[in-house]
Every structure is written in structure tokens, then in C-alpha cells.
Design brief:
- The chain is about 45% helix and about 10% strand.
- The chain has about 350 residues and is an alpha/beta fold.
- It folds into two domains: about 170 residues, Rossmann fold (3-Layer(aba) Sandwich), CATH 3.40.50; about 170 residues, Up-down Bundle (Dehydroquinate synthase-like, alpha domain).
- Strand 2, helix 2 and strand 3 form a beta-alpha-beta unit.
- The two termini are about 35 Å apart.
- Bound molecules: nicotinamide-adenine-dinucleotide and zinc ion.
- Keywords: Oxidoreductase.
- This is Iron-containing alcohol dehydrogenase.
- InterPro entries: ADH_Fe/GldA, ADH_Fe_C, Alcohol_dehydrogenase_Fe.
- GO terms for molecular function: alcohol dehydrogenase (NAD+) activity; metal ion binding.
Length: about 350
């Protein structure tokens, strides 16, 4: 679990106080990986105080993190500094938070990041890393994984060393998120809750967090219960609780199929989940009905026909990725999932999207 967390509007101002005791020496910099949407945004960047060899690296979130990108960043950091960094600080959405976690791990572990995609393959603790989410929903700020696209698979580095050492939850940082993106990333949280609560892996730990996050999502996306600021606060906590819920269970059918879209077409996680979830009423009847209500209420158009031009080989690639995520199907359907989740079944579903 994340060992330290602060919450509150304006809590981002505490960043330098939080970091200063963690500086190892003047040659060991803090490296800030910041979403490039904040480039030139003095409101945010003026609060990052740099000393000695500290460095800000702006990173585009247009594409989701790749193992090659992680390896390249690690090399760049090693080559441009005399000492190993004192810490890595990720400021952005799931894309940047996952990059920060992966870079922190790969600065202390040999080889390439693709070698660590899987469960508990990391042997050496990562360097100190801090997460500052600027959009809410993925739960990447709290989770034990960093999802990376590698040469062979889209799979997380799941390990005890992956979670952040410190998280700063400042809902004010989410104030300028565009509406569609707010919905898509918010729905990632909602879908985490449905998949966790309706999954066969459910247990009291996951249920307690999942129910809270589910209720918060209803307050936010159905009732609109609160001021703009209150809704930002609630979504940040829903994301946290949704992430905690899947930490001790699993995601399900929507994530498995969305990973297929992401791998083949580069469809981003939030929107990909929405494209898939829209067609999963047979697995999650109530969850999908409520999702459709949320979509209507906020006038969100989900892209249609993204699979209409695909070849049989391309369908096969997506189906291979989706079927490879066995724990997700086992959670969604149960131990005998292979009886019903056939290649034909998945192809028919993808053809609707
Ligand atoms: P994202 O990080 O890709 O950001 C989406 C868009 O919002 C980007 O264009 C970004 O620049 C913009 N943005 C972010 N903050 C903003 C702000 N405050 N103001 C204006 N624009 C802002 O999106 P995401 O949905 O947060 O993350 C998706 C990624 O998270 C995927 O790579 C996915 O695999 C990963 N993920 C990880 C976990 C995990 O547990 N590690 C869980 C779910 C998803
Ligand atoms: Zn997700």
C-alpha cells in the first residue's frame, strides 16, 4: 500500500516540504515527470521548486506508457546526473503516474522493463517515488501495478515495490480537465467498481472499498450531488477507493477486452473501457444500464465502428490479448470461464464496437 498520503485542496503546496528531508545529497536530484499539458502553466509549475540538479521532464500523455519509453527515460536520467536520483515525482494522469512508478523501479533493477511485466518479478526496492494525480479515475495513484505496453504484451509490473511512497491528493489540480476526458477517466473508476463487486474474487476488503467508490460515482455522475469543487473532491476519493477495491480482487471482462483494443489500435484506457462496457450488458446488466444513464445525462458520444474495418488477423490479435488475461476472466465468470468465453464469442462482441 501507499505508505503516506496527504489530501486537500492546495495540498500540492506542501510538495517541497515533503521532499526536502528525502534529498540524499546535492548530486542526487529530484526528477519531476510532468504531463506536458502543464507546460507553460505557471499556476502549477511555479510550485515545483528546483534545487541543485533537480530536473523537470515534460511528457506527452497522447500515448500510453511503453516499456521502451521507460527504458529510454531511465537511460536519459542515468546519463545526465552524477548520482542516482533522490526521488521521482510523477504529476499527471494514469499515463504519467505509471511512467513514474516504472522509472523508479528500473533505476534500481537491472535489465529492461519488459522483463518485469508480470507478478512479483521485481527484486530490489525502487527509489523513493511520489505520485500527484491531476485527473481522477484510474486508481493508478494507489495501485500496486504500472501498466505498460511492451513488445509482446500489455501487462503491468505488479509488485510490492510499485506503489508510491507518498501521494499528494489535491483535487484542485483536476479543475481544467476537459469534460469528455473527465467522463472517460471517471468511468474507469466506475467500471473498476462494477467489475470488482460483480466478480467471483470479491471479498470483504474489496467490497468495502468498492461499494464506497460505487456510491460516490452515483453521487457524481447521476445525482450531481454537490458543488463543482465537492464533486472534484469526491471523484478523487472514488478513484482511490476504486483502486483499493481492485487491489485485493481483479478487474473483469471490460478491462480484458479493452486491453485488446489498446494493444492493436492504441485506444486509450478510459475511452476503450467505455467502448467495450457499452456492449457488456450480458455480463453486467445493472452496471451497464447505469452507465448508459450516465452517458446520456452528460451527453457523451462513445466512438462507434472502430472495429468495422479490421481483418480476421487483427481480430485474432485482439482476441489473443484479451484471452491471455486469464485472472480477469476467472474473476468475471468463474473457474469454468473457458466454456463460455470462446474466440467466436469475443469476435462477435468486438464486431459490435
Ligand atoms: P491520461 O493520463 O492519459 O490523461 C488523459 C488526458 O488528460 C491527457 O491528454 C492529459 O494530458 C490530460 N490531463 C491530465 N490531467 C489534466 C488536467 N489537470 N487538466 C487538463 N488535462 C489533463 O489518462 P488517465 O485516464 O488518467 O490514464 C490512463 C492510463 O492509466 C493508461 O495508460 C492506463 O493503462 C493507466 N491505468 C493504470 C492503472 C494502474 O493501476 N496503474 C489503472 C488504470 C489505468
Ligand atoms: Zn482501469
Amino acid at each position: 500500500m501507499v505508505s503516506r498520503v496527504v489530501f486537500g485542496r492546495g495540498s500540492f503546496n506542501q510538495l517541497s516540504d515533503i521532499l526536502s528531508p528525502k534529498r540524499l545529497n546535492v548530486k542526487a536530484p529530484f526528477i519531476y515527470l510532468v504531463d506536458d499539458v502543464f507546460k507553460g502553466n505557471a499556476w502549477l509549475t511555479s510550485r515545483i521548486s528546483l534545487a541543485y540538479a533537480d530536473q523537470v521532464i515534460f511528457i506527452s500523455a497522447d500515448e500510453e506508457p511503453k516499456t521502451s519509453q521507460v527504458d529510454q527515460l531511465v537511460e536519459q536520467i542515468i546519463l545526465s546526473h552524477k548520482d542516482r536520483p533522490s526521488g521521482i515525482i510523477g504529476i499527471g494522469g494514469g499515463t504519467i503516474l505509471d511512467l513514474a512508478k516504472a522509472v523508479a523501479i528500473m533505476l534500481t533493477n537491472p535489465g529492461e522493463s519488459k522483463d518485469y511485466q508480470g507478478w512479483d518479478l521485481v527484486k530490489t526496492p525502487a527509489i523513493y517515488h511520489v505520485g500527484v494525480p491531476t485527473i481522477s479515475g484510474t486508481g493508478a495513484e494507489v495501485s500496486r501495478t504500472t501498466v505498460l505496453t511492451g513488445p509482446e504484451k500489455k501487462l503491468g509490473i505488479n509488485s510490492d515495490y510499485t506503489p508510491f511512497d507518498q501521494v499528494i491528493l489535491d483535487p484542485e489540480l483536476t479543475k481544467d480537465v476537459p469534460k469528455d476526458q473527465w467522463f472517460f477517466t471517471g468511468m474507469d473508476c466506475y467500471i473498476h467498481c462494477v467489475e470488482s463487486l460483480k466478480g467471483t474474487y470479491l471479498n470483504a476488503f474489496s467490497q468495502s472499498y468498492g461499494e464506497k467508490a460505487y456510491d460516490l460515482c452515483k453521487e457524481i455522475f447521476i445525482d450531481g450531488d454537490g458543488s463543482k469543487e465537492e464533486l472534484q473532491d469526491k471523484l478523487m476519493m472514488a478513484s482511490w477507493h476504486g483502486g483499493m477495491s481492485i487491489a485485493y480482487s481483479q478487474v473483469g471482462a471490460a478491462h480484458a477486452m479493452s486491453y485488446g483494443l489498446g494493444y492493436l489500435l492504441g485506444t486509450k484506457h478510459g475511452i476503450g473501457n467505455c467502448i467495450v462496457f457499452d456492449h457488456l450488458e450480458e455480463f453486467y446488466p445493472e452496471g451497464v444500464a447505469l452507465f448508459k444513464e450516465m452517458k446520456e445525462k452528460h451527453n457523451i458520444e462513445i466512438p462507434q465502428g472502430i472495429c468495422s474495418q479490421l481483418s480476421d488477423d487483427e481480430f485474432d490479435i485482439m482476441i489473443d490479448v484479451a484471452l491471455g488475461l486469464e485472472p480477469l476472466w476467472e474473476n468475471a465468470i468463474g473457474k469454468n470461464w473457458k466454456k463460455t468465453i470462446t474466440r467466436e464469442k469475443l469476435k462477435a462482441l468486438y464486431q459490435k464496437m
